[in-house]
Amino acid sequence: MSLEITEELIARQSPEAQAIIRVLLAKISELEARLNKTPQNSSLPPSVQHPHAKPTPKKPKSQKKRGGQPGHQKHERPLISTDECDEVQSFKPTECRRCGTKLSGRDRDPLRHQVWELPEIKPHVTEYQRHRLVCRGCGETTCAALPPGVPTGQAGPRLVALTALLLGCFRQSKSRTALFLSTILGQPCSTGWVVKLQNQATYALRPAYDELASQLPNQPILAMDETPTKEGTAKTWLWTYVAAAFTLFAVRPSRDGTGVTDLLGDDFEGVVHCDRARMYLSLARLQWCWAHLKRDFQALVDSGDNQAKRLGHDLLRPTREMFRLWARYRDGTLTRLGWKRLMGPVRDDVDALLLRGAFSGNRRFAGMCQELYDHRPWLWTFLDVEGVEPTNNASERALRQAVIWRKLSFGTQSAAGSRFVETILTVGETCRQQVRNVFDFLTDAVEARLAGQPAPSLLPRA
């Protein structure tokens, strides 16, 4: 038998019982809201939801079979020229397959069949013999010095670069990295040696990292995000800063405003893409992410409050229209002037709905609507500043690889490990952003450090 708890029923209780009932009802409402959270109506990552639990796609399932469709363009690896092949073997038939007559001559256009194979992998070991010679005049012993660029350890630049690449970009553990080096490359290796090579890579790459960090305060537009991680037993935060031409990661001990001001300074004048986290409020100009807002509006629709559902549906309509117009502007079917003209009514609708929600008296969403209305210029910065997007997808994409690394590694064990992680993630993502070969850059950086030369730069090439 169910009992409906009404205000009339609560009023008939003693003051103490009324207070207890209201606290319990608020707690129940909070727990129900938590149960209803999904990646579609909150900031929960999609990985927390089982694939079978995901909502049915709105588009009907295609009736086409898997794989290539009839008439699609064929994709195949083209043959390289014969001169590029390492070995060419020529085969001629000796007799006619029909009558057995002996055959001779040469086919001017033979059938070509190429097989790709890995060469035998064997480390290239160079021995440097440093002779000690005795002076005949004074008897002093002098030993020859190593040439510039020769490492004092046993690892060359390419081996250090590959180790850093395996650890950072390919997210391998230290034991797996040592196993790969010893098993596949024939390079004797231990986990302790991997740590030494990791530190060498950090020292070689750090000047390039510091150079990027010094350029952050000068960027006109940045996308920022953060994710929790660990350094030993302490909780830390991995921040990402995405500029137009580079991406920088930084491990910081907290999620407060120091993660913003440490690298941007107190007088940053650019636009920052972000979610509505409190630490970003100290910045002068923001663009709040509309993908996050869309999930918040969807959360209102999914709540058990009819008033919240109605407001959620009303807010989702102009939000969908905004994304539709943005897609048209981005693909070039709308000019910027025409796009801004069509966005005028959308902006007015959203502002009016937020004001309605702020004065609704409903504690479920009145505070959120009031905050959005008070900071409504931060919802529409992308209309006023060219190059600013309505979402924070750039930092979300950049942070994805870091999140995968974090889930596989469970963080770092020391400050040196954190410095390596933020450095190698920065180098890897920036090279991807600039379409540069990350292995070549790592090798060049290690060679420059060994030779005592300036480190290569990650700033965009002139």
Structure write-up:
The structure is a single chain. With 462 residues, the protein is an alpha/beta fold. It has a domain at 290-384. It is 44% helix and 9% strand. It contains 14 helices and 7 strands. The strands form 2 sheets. Strands 5-4-3-6-7 form a 5-stranded mixed β-sheet. Strands 1-2 form a two-stranded antiparallel sheet. Strand 4 and strand 5 form a beta hairpin. Helix 3 packs across helix 14 (438-451) and helix 9 packs across helix 10 (366-374). The chain is extended and about 105 Å long. The mean pLDDT is 88.
In which order are the strands of the major sheet placed? 5-4-3-6-7
Overall pLDDT metric: 88
Q: Point out poorly predicted stretches.
A: none
Distance between the termini: 76 Å
Morphology: extended
Succession of helices and strands: HHEEHHHEEEHEEHHHHHHHH
Number of strands: 7
Tally of helical runs = 14
Strand proportion, as a percent range, falls in: 5-15%
Q: Give the oligomer, counting copies of the same chain as homo and different chains as hetero.
A: single chain
Task: Report on the biggest sheet.
Answer: 5 strands, mixed
